[in-house]
């Protein structure tokens, strides 16, 4: 059956004042990082907010919308364990490695939107940096390329690494965060991505790294999501999922 495309758009606002999302941040010219500059788009403020905090970054905002076939043309196909109608696009702010707010997008299961926006709202409030956040379709659904680009992403209709079973990513109930700083480490200690090798051990004191017991792990635990860094044998430091697997 075809999906009835009534584009129900729900706006999730975790910060008290969503309306104060002013959108644009001045771009500091001296920023030497290589993060591609994205426009921090947001909802236009309905009421002007004249305040001395005009230069403060926008509050965290997250918008949840339905996913079109076109948006997931590489990562979803008929036969995937979740129908297209069971997926949602979260468009939300995140804090970049360049110390600036950005707007990113994550595709997740519709039953995962609350958990994800809750945790990413916390990360944003902590100014905890995320390198990049775009759906894996930006890499034609290629997980390796997405990871190589240090991209944070969630839904991808694929098997689990080294397995013939669906990954939790195929259900939209898993997210990989800063995969360069948080690599997948095989049981023999090897890391497939060259750019991630220096992050194979824990703990590492560097921006965007997830260490055992730290607040990122706790924030996910509070919404019932487990961390791949807690697995025995294989360690998947970038990976959080609803079932913990
Ligand atoms: Zn993962």
UniProtKB/TrEMBL annotation:
Residues 1-17 form the signal peptide. It is an enzyme of class 3 (hydrolase). Residues 24-35 have a biased composition (Polar residues). Residues 161-241 form the Peptidase M15C domain. Residues 36-58 have a biased composition (Low complexity). One of its GO terms (molecular function) is hydrolase activity. InterPro entries: Peptidase_M15C (IPR039561), Zn_M74/Hedgehog-like (IPR009045). This is M15 family metallopeptidase. It comes from the Bacteria. The lineage of its organism: Bacteria, Bacillati, Actinomycetota, Actinomycetes, Streptosporangiales. It comes from Streptosporangium algeriense. Its EC number is 3.4.-.-.
